[in-house]
Design goal:
single chain, two-stranded antiparallel ribbon, 18 helices, binds 4-fluoro-L-phenylalanine
Length: 453
Amino acid sequence: MSKSNTETGGPRPLFTTRLGVIATTVGSAVGLGNIWRFPYEAGVHGGGAFMMLYIAFIIILGIPLITAEYALGRATHRGIFGVFRALKAHRAWNALGYMGVLSAMLILSFYSVVAGWTLEYFFGAVGGAYTDVSREGLHTVFGEFTSGWRPLMWTVLFLVVNYLIISRGVARGIERISNVLMPLLFALIIIFCVNSLMLPDAAAGLTFLFKPDFSSLTAPVVIGAMGQAFFSLSLGLGCMLTYASYFNERTDIVKSATTTAALDTLIAVLAGVLIFPAVFSFGYSPEAGPKLVFEVLPAIFNEMTGGSVWASLFFFTLFIASLTSTISMCEIVVVFLCEEKKMKRRSACAVTIAVALVLGLLCAMSFGYFTGVELPLIGHPDFFSWFDYGTSNILLPLGGMLTSVFAGRVLDRKVFNRQITGSERPSALSRLIGFSLRYICPALIAVIFIVNL
Ligand code: PFF
C-alpha cells in the first residue's frame, strides 16, 4: 500500500500492485457464497436451469455493476456513504448508504455462523472425527452440532479474529493473507473435483448441474439465481465500491471487474462439480439446503486416501476464504463509522464486531434454542434464513438497482468516462456499460421483483 492524495479526499492508503487489487476483490467475492451457498441454492432450485440463469445474471448485471461500484469508489476514494457527499448528490441517496451498511451487518451475522461451522469441521477433521462415519452418521453429527452450544463459541471466536485483523488496518491484514491463500484454495478445489469425478454416479451429478430443465424455471428460481449472483460478487451493498476507494489511477477498472467476475464464477461452478457427483453417488438429496455441503464434503474426503488430512486442509482454506469475505463486509461498516461518525478505526471495529456478535448469536441459535421461532414476512423463516434470504434476494438487488441508476443517470458522464477510459471522452466500452446501467440493469431487476411479488 502507498499513500496518495485524491481528487476529493485527503491521503488514503492505496493498493500498490495489480495482484493486490485482484486478490482482495476476489478474496471478498470468493467465499462461502461459492462453496456453501451456490451448491445448496442450485440444489434447491433444480440444478442446470439455476446455474444457466446465475451465469447470465453475472454477465448481464454483475459486470456492469461491479464496474459502476469500482468507478464510484475510485472517483471519490470514499465508502458507500461518503461517495454521495463527495459527489454532492441529493441527500435522498444517503438511503442507499444506510442500506449498504445494514446489508453488510446482516450478512456478516449469519455468514460468521457458517464460518464458525468451518472451524468446527476443521478441528473435527484434524482429530479424525469424520473418518469412516456413514452417511446417516454425518447427518446426525451435523444436526447435533448445530443444535448445541459449540456454534455459539465458534461464531464468537470467528468474529474476534475478524476484529484482530480489521483493527490493524487494511494493508497488513487483507492484502497479505489474500495473496497467499486464494491460490491455495483454488488448487485444493481442483484436486477434490478430480476425486469427485471418479465417483460411480458422477455423471448423474454433472447432468443435474449442467443440463437445464427449463420446465423448472419458476419465479423463485429466477430471484434465487439473481440473489446468488449479487451475493457471490459482493455486489449491491457498496463492498466493491469501498475496496475500489483503495485503487490507484492505474487500475484498469473494466478489466479488473471482468477478472473478478470470471474467477468468482469459475470457483462456484467448480464447487458444483465437486459437490453434485458426490451428492448423487452417496445418495444425498440435492435439496438438503444449508447443511448440504457440510454433510457431503466429509463423505467425499472419506473416499480419499489420507482423507482427514485433505479435509483439514480444505476446511482451513474455506475458513480463510470466509475470513477474506467477512473482512470486506466489516470494511463497509468501519469506513462508514470512521468517515461519517468520525470514530477512531479501533472503536469503529469494536462497534461493528459487537453488533455482529449479538445478531450472529441469534442466527447461530436458529438451529437449536430458537428452533420454531418464526419472523414475519418472506415466508416466516428463522433468523438465519431471514437474514440470508432478505439480504441476497431483496436488499442486494435493490441496492444494485439504485447503484445502476446513480452511476448511469446521476453521475456526471465525464467522471464516469474518466474512470473507464482514462479520458472524459466516451469509448465504445464506456457507452455499452453506460447503456446497461441506465436501461438494462434497473429494468431487469425491477421486472424480476415485480414478477416475484
Ligand atoms: N461474496 C461473498 C461470498 O460469495 O462468500 C459474500 C459477501 C462478501 C457478500 C462481502 C457481501 C459482501 F459485502
